[in-house]
Design goal:
0% strand, 6 helices, DNA polymerase, domain 1, mainly alpha, 151 residues
């Protein structure tokens, strides 16, 4: 079996020139596969090595990074299996489930909302705002006032 660093170099070349993946994707693959090769000492890993690598990643990186790094290694192994270099892909029977923490939605601060509303109030004046509200609730009234379509 060929040495992993040589196979990784060919795989990255194929990703860049054969598949025409973006430079950012190839760079991420290069970093992720180099980290994996360092972890395994340049040897092909079995399921137990992969489990150890996932554990190492979980202790070192954020969940999104872990998922990306595993996806890079999984794609690499899959390609080697398809090309006939590996008889069995150790990822086949390895079930990984990495939970990302739930992120709460970002909220516009109250002061920013107040500034926006104040700017609208200053820009349009009371009569214009009332006309716009009327036109919004009753489209025919908007036609009566001949309002320009600003929406």
């Amino acid at each position: 079996m060929e040495k992993m660093p040589e196979v990784i170099a060919r795989y990255l070349e194929d990703c860049e020139f054969g598949r025409k993946l973006s430079a950012g994707t190839v760079k991420a693959y290069r970093i992720d596969l180099a980290q994996f090769a360092r972890f395994t000492g340049g040897e092909w890993g079995d399921r137990e090595v992969l489990k150890g690598y996932v554990k190492h990643l979980n202790q070192t990186f954020a969940p999104r990074s872990v998922k990306r790094k595993i996806a890079s290694v999984r794609a690499f192994y899959r390609e080697q299996e398809v090309n006939g270099l590996l008889e069995e892909n150790p990822f086949e029977k390895l079930h990984l489930r990495i939970q990302s923490p739930r992120q709460i939605p970002r909220v516009i601060p109250g002061q920013v909302v107040q500034n926006i509303l104040q700017a609208a109030y200053n820009a349009y004046g009371a009569a214009r705002r009332q006309t716009l509200l009327l036109a919004e609730k009753h489209p025919r009234a908007g036609m009566t006032f001949a309002l320009p379509n600003e929406r």
